[in-house]
């Protein structure tokens, strides 16, 4: 976050910063300003690509707009805007919070089930089934989802490497071949480390499956297959359980379908694992 942006948050809200500078905006910048002004809540859940397409301007124009206002970029602006929106919202009581969290989780699964297409899910299963070099990339909360996917695949006899360190991701991507399948997990599809690693893997002719909530993002440009979940998060909700629930639901669907297609093998290996793990219990 830039010093200018931090100073603005201490005294002036992002919405006011825009108002103070709107007389300097170009025609394209006015489109961005008017959209943010009229759709503040939606902007918190947009990717840079979605915002630029919605406003009908280039991504470079969007970035210049925020830097002109003193912000490092779109994510920097979104973070401060989310704080402004949160401060203006009324505080919920405990009972309301309990219901809201429950409803958000149920909604995340329900909406994810609506956006998932069976043919795309089966295409992902086929790609994973046919490869003996499966690698999962995830950073932060998405890395946790990646570890869960590795655990699920291992229990049904499918080996997969999971890499959550950005440097190791680049190294692993550099070793990829046309026989490699990369499963890139990123809710926003805008995590630079993931996109950088996937670009390297794609340069080595690896196949890429993106698990994300955004149809259009820097990540999906390199994906051979995009599997969508519905949960989106504001900058202040990053890593929330609700978003992970939608990722885990999608992962569970993939792993269950893989197990069903390899039923006898998966059943035998799962039985062996369970038998050997039983010695770990008192």
Structural class: alpha/beta
Shape call: globular
Distance between the termini: 50 Å
Give the beta-strand count: 5
Runs in which pLDDT lies below 50 for 5 or more consecutive residues are 1-11
Gist?
The chain has 282 residues and is α/β, with parallel strands linked by helices. It has 14 helices and five strands.
Question: What can you tell me about this protein's structure?
Answer:
The chain is of the alpha/beta class and 282 residues long. The chain has 14 helices and 5 strands. Strands 2-1-3-4-5 form a 5-stranded parallel β-sheet, sandwiched between helices. α12 links the parallel β3 (180-185) and β4 (207-212). The termini are far apart.
Keywords:
282 residues, five-stranded parallel sheet
Mind sketching the topology for me?
Layout: H1 3-11, H2 14-21, H3 27-38, H4 40-43, H5 48-55, H6 59-68, H7 74-88, H8 94-115, H9 118-130, E1 133-138, H10 141-155, E2 161-163, H11 166-174, E3 180-185, H12 192-203, E4 207-212, E5 225-228, H13 241-261, H14 263-277
Parallel strand pairs: 1-2, 1-3, 3-4, 4-5
